[in-house]
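Customer escalation, tier 2.

The customer says the design service returned an amino acid string that "doesn't look like it belongs to this structure." They asked us to rerun it and document both sides in this ticket. The original structure tokens are below, unchanged.
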């Protein structure tokens, strides 16, 4: 006891700044050890710097060589920037709501055939705002175990009872629904399309079970809005349950303009509640007018014609068919997100780097983004890719796959990397 007091006294007389510096040095050592472990495991994630606008062909720093690049979308953003300025400098309820924000919310609700919609800086924020505002300790939320991180984090913020069901396992969901019958509200939460594997939630079965057990259905459709379904409304349209899904969250940062922004659409009373209580909405600046203008025009293009949707589906099928014929395993079914399953983290990383040398911009995914042993290269097909782009990508995959032993090597098949802009 006395020794402890003497030590404390000695520490209290140490020069100011001594102890914080020592703690900082300790922290640096811990962090460097952790980072080195990531490097050694082959799961280090490098960010490639793009030096051009997003599109079917891009320029990447150090390498020669969707609707976000549609000329009408770009022009709409420029027009909104000129007419409404660069930003609102505040949150919505203080001085940050303009007519274009209300018009976009109404257009989103009309697009999804819902009563109302509310904009957020991102869909991550929409998911962070929904569950805490909607659910109380009297309620329950049932979540697919492979839901997006933003859904998981949003659920953590609420005080509802939490149930997690096995991925796409309807028997397990039913068991959890039976267990949750004692709660006031029951909300089933799922991604519509799961971004890591490209698989799609069985919404028909989920909605049937929800109806049977008096539950609501929430779908995060970030990886479906704008390109799945006959007119791009998403997975609920694709599977014929638009009238059975109560709440949809989605993004403006992918197919709908490709910049940023997210939203919740559903019952008008829910949207009104979120305007009063959703913290990411109340304490975040309004979406910049240019982003709103781009997203609004992207929705116009989708509602005018389904030609973009049909083109996306055809290109997706072409890529998947050719890759599987070459010997690769592609996860998911008919989704433009096409995970090329490799298993080994280092192999995925090395192959992605060699693909970049051949002018193809793809990213290797490994733990902790995906489970250990499930490393893959994720390919995303865009509406503006041509058939030539698709074929060139497959050709490069075959070359690199043979080079790294992911495919059987054919004598004399190796070719030097191309020196072109990245796809």
């Amino acid at each position: 006891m006395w020794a402890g007091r003497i030590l404390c006294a000695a520490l209290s007389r140490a020069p100011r700044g001594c102890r914080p510096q020592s703690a900082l040095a300790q922290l640096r050592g811990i962090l460097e050890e952790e980072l080195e472990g990531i490097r050694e495991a082959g799961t280090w994630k490098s960010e490639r710097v793009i030096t051009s606008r997003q599109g079917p062909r891009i320029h990447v720093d150090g390498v020669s060589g969707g609707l976000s690049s549609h000329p009408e979308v770009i022009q709409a953003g420029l027009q909104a920037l000129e007419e409404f300025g660069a930003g609102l400098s505040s949150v919505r309820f203080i001085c940050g709501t303009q007519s274009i924000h209300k018009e976009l919310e109404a257009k989103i609700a009309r697009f999804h055939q819902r009563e109302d919609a509310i904009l957020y800086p991102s869909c991550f924020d929409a998911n962070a705002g929904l569950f805490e505002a909607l659910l109380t300790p009297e309620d329950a939320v049932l979540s697919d175990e492979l839901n997006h991180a933003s859904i998981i984090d949003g659920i953590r913020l609420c005080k509802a009872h939490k149930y997690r069901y096995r991925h796409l396992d309807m028997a397990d969901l039913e068991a959890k629904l039976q267990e949750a019958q004692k709660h006031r509200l029951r909300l089933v939460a799922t991604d519509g399309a799961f971004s890591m594997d490209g698989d799609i939630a069985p919404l028909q079965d989920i909605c049937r079970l929800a109806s049977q057990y008096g539950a609501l259905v929430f779908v995060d459709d970030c990886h479906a809005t704008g390109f799945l379904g006959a007119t791009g409304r998403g997975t609920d349209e694709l599977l014929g349950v638009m009238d059975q899904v109560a709440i949809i969250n989605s993004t403006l940062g992918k197919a709908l303009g490709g910049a940023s922004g997210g939203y919740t659409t559903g019952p008008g009373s829910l949207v009104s509640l979120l305007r009063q209580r959703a913290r990411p909405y109340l304490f975040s600046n309004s979406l910049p007018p240019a982003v709103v203008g781009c997203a609004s025009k992207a929705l116009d293009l989708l509602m005018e014609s389904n030609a973009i949707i049909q083109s996306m589906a055809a290109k997706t099928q072409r890529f998947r068919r050719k890759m599987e014929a070459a010997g690769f395993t592609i996860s998911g079914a008919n989704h433009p997100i096409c995970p090329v399953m490799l298993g080994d983290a280092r192999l995925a990383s090395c192959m992605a780097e060699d693909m970049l040398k051949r002018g193809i911009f793809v990213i290797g995914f490994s733990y902790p983004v995906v489970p250990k042993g499930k490393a893959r290269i994720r390919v995303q097909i865009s509406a503006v890719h041509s058939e030539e782009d698709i074929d060139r990508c497959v050709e490069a995959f075959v070359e690199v796959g043979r080079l790294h032993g992911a495919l059987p090597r054919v004598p004399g098949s190796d070719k030097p990397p191309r020196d072109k802009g990245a796809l």
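Tier 2 assessment: The sequence is consistent with the input. The longest helix spans residues 18-40. Residues 94 and 282 are 9 Å apart (CA to CA). Sent an explanation to the customer and offered a walkthrough call.
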